[in-house]
């Protein structure tokens, strides 16, 4: 019996990856040990800091920083997680913040400064709403994924362990918080906390119409030594992830499987605005614009030393023009 290459993959437990996770689809020649138990922040740390996994769903922002710092990681243009971010800017409602420019000069908390969601939000606030990132006092709760020295001119404070940005926001110690998740005060209905954008969906739709960007959050990282020793792994992994996505999207097209009354309408609304495959993989023109924008934000905000070309960030996954789909 032919022995397959055994690799450990850490990723989120998403429907878009379900055929890989349950073994319906497997990459040719590879036996994946798939781990889904870690939250995103923990998974990224354990991959980039501790090198615990062979392959991992990884923060796009911190992967860019890791490449800039010369760490031995590469990535495939597989994007398991995307999310619009206007709905994740929170304010203390008693601070007189009515519009984005009211954040200028304010104290704004983040879980940690490098996280992709916050990089997108800082860039959007600066370029779409006129809020320079260095006009804000930043307060970070967690250690950064990558070693971080605040660039000159950045007002940055690392909070002590007994401080939480969510609690500080509710109690008025912070004016606003940018966060990758829905924060507890919102879930609990705390009247002291609200949204910066009162209709985030409308803002997000308008943003997409202006930019064509459905923000990429995560990439598929892989240890560099695996790529060097087994270069065939790269296209085989990419094809498996792409096939899993295609299978999932075909399955989800059936409204019977989702217990939502207006699921069909939501699907049609997404397709009408974002196109037939808003979760597309590969360095398509739309994805290039998406990721080049993120790289630009990272450089502008002092997280990386240069604007890194996408060809240095992503591995080549092509099997040749019009190849890869022939009958065997």
Mean pLDDT: 95
The proportion of residues in beta strands is 5-15%
CATH class of the largest domain: Alpha Beta
Task: Please trace the helix and strand order, writing H or E for each element.
Answer: EHEHEHEEEHEEHEHEHEHHHHH
Q: CATH superfamily membership of the largest domain, which one?
A: Periplasmic binding protein-like II
N→C terminal distance: 20 Å
CATH architecture of the largest domain: 3-Layer(aba) Sandwich
Query: How many structural units, i.e. domains?
Result: 2
Write the topology of this structure.
Elements: E1 5-10, H1 18-21, E2 30-35, H2 40-48, E3 55-59, H3 60-68, E4 73-76, E5 89-92, E6 107-110, H4 116-129, E7 137-140, E8 155-158, H5 165-170, E9 176-178, H6 184-187, E10 193-195, H7 200-211, E11 218-223, H8 224-229, H9 233-252, H10 263-274, H11 285-300, H12 310-313
Parallel strand pairs: 1-2, 1-3, 6-7, 6-9, 7-8
Antiparallel strand pairs: 3-11, 4-11, 5-9, 5-10
Structure summary:
By secondary structure, this protein is of the alpha/beta class. The chain is built from twelve helices and eleven strands.
Task: Describe the model.
This protein starts with a strand and ends in a 15-residue tail after the last helix. The protein is of the alpha/beta class and 328 residues long. The protein is globular and about 65 Å long. The chain has twelve helices and eleven strands. Helix content is 35%, strand content 15%. The strands form two sheets. A six-stranded mixed beta sheet has the order 8-7-6-9-5-10. Strands 2-1-3-11-4 form a five-stranded mixed beta sheet. The protein folds into two domains: 5-82 and 216-313, 3-Layer(aba) Sandwich (D-Maltodextrin-Binding Protein, domain 2); 86-211, D-Maltodextrin-Binding Protein, domain 2 (3-Layer(aba) Sandwich). The model has no long low-confidence stretch (mean pLDDT 95).
């Amino acid at each position: 019996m032919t022995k397959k290459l055994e690799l450990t993959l850490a990723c989120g437990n998403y429907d878009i990856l379900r055929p890989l996770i349950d073994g319906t689809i497997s990459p040719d020649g590879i036996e994946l040990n798939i781990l889904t138990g870690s939250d995103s922040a923990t998974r990224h740390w354990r991959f980039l800091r501790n090198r615990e996994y062979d392959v991992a769903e990884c923060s796009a922002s911190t992967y860019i920083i890791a490449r800039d710092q010369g760490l031995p990681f590469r990535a495939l243009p597989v994007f398991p997680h995307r999310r619009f971010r206007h709905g994740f800017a929170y304010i203390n409602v008693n601070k007189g913040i009515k519009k984005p420019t009211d954040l200028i000069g304010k104290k704004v908390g983040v879980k940690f400064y490098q996280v992709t969601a916050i990089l997108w939000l800082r860039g959007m606030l600066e370029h779409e709403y006129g809020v320079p990132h260095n006009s804000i006092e930043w307060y970070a709760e967690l250690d950064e994924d990558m070693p971080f020295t605040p660039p000159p001119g950045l007002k940055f404070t690392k909070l002590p362990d007994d401080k939480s940005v969510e609690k500080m926001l509710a109690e008025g110690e912070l004016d606003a918080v940018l966060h990758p998740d829905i924060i507890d005060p919102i879930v609990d209905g705390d009247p002291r906390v609200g949204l910066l954008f009162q209709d985030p969906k409308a803002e997000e739709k308008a943003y997409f119409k202006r930019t064509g960007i459905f923000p990429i959050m995560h990439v598929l990282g892989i240890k560099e030594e695996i790529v060097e020793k087994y270069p065939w792994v790269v296209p085989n992994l990419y094809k498996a992830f792409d096939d899993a996505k295609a299978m999932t999207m075909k399955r989800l097209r059936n409204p019977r499987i989702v217990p939502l009354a207006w699921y069909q309408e939501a699907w049609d609304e997404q397709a009408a605005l974002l196109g037939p495959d808003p979760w597309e993989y590969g360095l398509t023109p739309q994805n290039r614009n998406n990721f080049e924008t993120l790289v630009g934000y990272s450089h502008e905000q002092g997280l990386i030393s240069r604007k890194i070309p996408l060809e240095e960030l992503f591995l080549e996954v092509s099997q040749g023009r019009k190849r890869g789909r022939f009958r065997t």
